[in-house]
Specification:
The protein contains 5 helices and 3 strands; from the N terminus they run ααβαβαβα. By secondary structure, it is α/β, with parallel strands linked by helices. The protein has a 3-stranded parallel beta sheet, sandwiched between helices.
Length: about 120
């Protein structure tokens, strides 16, 4: 959507999910985060998590986060870094489910993420 991107400031939808998780964590209970662009905006999402953590021991959420193994190196590395940060933080009441889909690209991973994500957060 070139017109929208040119006219308005937009952000990747997966980045939005992580942003909400660390700024308004009670907005949603379930999150499906596919191919998070952790690197976007100079990896600002990692700083948001660092700012959030000292005053928040818990995150009452179920989050499914995934990436395709054949996505770009920054995408896979960012995913792995975000997973490590969240696991190391050991947030109370956060059920974090992660998956790397083998042989999937940024586009081909979408159906797998939706299918597995829905099952993960609703069962």
């Amino acid at each position: 959507m070139p017109f929208v991107n040119k006219t308005y400031r937009t952000i990747p939808e997966d980045w939005f999910a992580l942003y909400v998780l660390f700024h308004q964590p009670h907005t949603f209970r379930r999150y499906i985060i596919g191919s998070p662009t952790v690197w976007w905006d100079d990896a600002a999402i990692l700083q948001y998590e660092r700012d959030f953590a000292p005053n928040n021991a818990g995150l009452s959420a179920i989050a499914f986060m995934s990436v395709g193994s054949r996505e770009s190196e920054p995408m896979v590395a960012g995913f792995q870094e975000m997973v490590k940060v969240m696991q190391d933080r050991q947030y109370n009441n956060l059920e974090l489910i992660t998956h790397i889909f083998e042989d999937e690209t940024h586009i081909s991973v979408i159906p797998a993420t939706i299918s597995r994500g829905l099952r993960a957060v609703f069962t």
